Amino acid sequence: MAVAAALGGCAAHRPAGPAVSPAGAPLRYVAVGASETVGVGADEPLRDAWPQVFFRRALPRAATFVNLGVPGATVADALTRQVPAALDLQPDVVTVWLNVNDLIAGVTPTDFEAQLGDLVHRLRRNGATRVLVANTPNLDRLPAYIRCRTDPQDGLCQQTVAGRRLPEPAALGRAVDGYNAAIGRVANRERAILVDLHAAEARARADGTEPSLVAADGFHPSTAGHGAVAATFAAALANPPAGR
To answer: What is this structure's pTM?
Structure first.
């Protein structure tokens, strides 16, 4: 989601390490996303943002990384601002986590699916790039939503996050379900790797660790939450569906 502080994307490279074989061009990883991808909520975003953690833990030492995330980005924004830059880099791996800003902006699941399908299709580069696309975690237990007080006139929360009104909790749950169905269809259709953050959040809720994964703003991942997101992406990359 949008945040008050303007944070831009960043590029990172691994520190020098042992020689890597086989020889050849290193794997190129690009992250596409919004404020979570930039690292909002982490104690040290440049170090602890989940794409940085994923990069360090899940990819070869020869890999390079460019973070194209932009706070507040929707899928439509990313199609204009992030996808062209990503394609110029000819990446081998791309991660995509874009859904909550669209949901808050009231983009319908049908329009969201069409735009996300276009984004993933373009990033796949006819199969040259492995694309990991995350679905939407449960949001109804986040402190930002628990504090919600619905305006009876329009059914929206009276609170705002970076100037945007939040859907009331019941509508939010329906929207999350609709978005996740759309994301699953896009992943299957475009042969992308689905990263099931919805299931990961449900497990954290069941084992009682969910509160520790939420930052002080009541919405974004904490440092521990960024680590958990990175681990979920890493597991999906390590165990993709056949042929992806």
So the answer is: 0.84
